[in-house]
Write a structure and sequence with these properties.
Layout lengths: L4 E3 H30 L8 H26 L1 E3 L14 E5 L5 E7 L10 E3 L3 H6 L7 E6 L2 E11 L3
Parallel strand pairs: 1-2, 4-5
Antiparallel strand pairs: 3-4, 3-7, 6-7
Length: 157
Amino acid sequence: MRTNLITREGFNKLEQELNYLWREERPEVTKKVTWAASLGDRSENADYQYNKKRLREIDRRVRFLRKRLEAVKVIDYSPQQAGKVFFGAWVEIENDAGEQKTFRIVGPDEIYGRNDYISIDSPMARALLSKQVDDEAIVTTPLGKKMWFINNIRYHD
C-alpha cells in the first residue's frame, strides 16, 4: 500500500508533467496520427502504429496522474517539525563503519529518478521517523538489523 503523502515540490512536478502531456505532447502526437492515417493502409504504416501506441501511453499516464493528484495530500513544512525527522526532512545518517548517507524522506511518487530521495514507506524512513540528532535507529533489512546514527536533520535545501 502506498502512502498518499507528497511534498509541495513533488505535487508541482506531477502537475507539470500532466500539463505537458495533455497540452503539448498529446496534441502533437494526435496530429501525427491523423497525418499518418491519411496516408492510407494503416496496417503497414509504422508512423501510424508507433504514434497510436504513444497516444495510448500518454492517455494512460494522464489518467493515472489525474487520479493520483486527487488522492494525494500535500504536506508542507511546519516549524513544529524542527529538530525531528518527519515527512520532507533531509536526513544525514552514519553507521558504526563510518558509512554516511544523506537523503530526503518523501512520498512514493517522488522517488523515481532520484538517488537522494527515499519513500516514507521504506523501512529506513519508518525507523527514522520522530528521531532527533544523535538518536540511533535500528533498520530491519533482508540481511538483518542495521544501526544508524542521526547526524543532521534539515528541511530546506
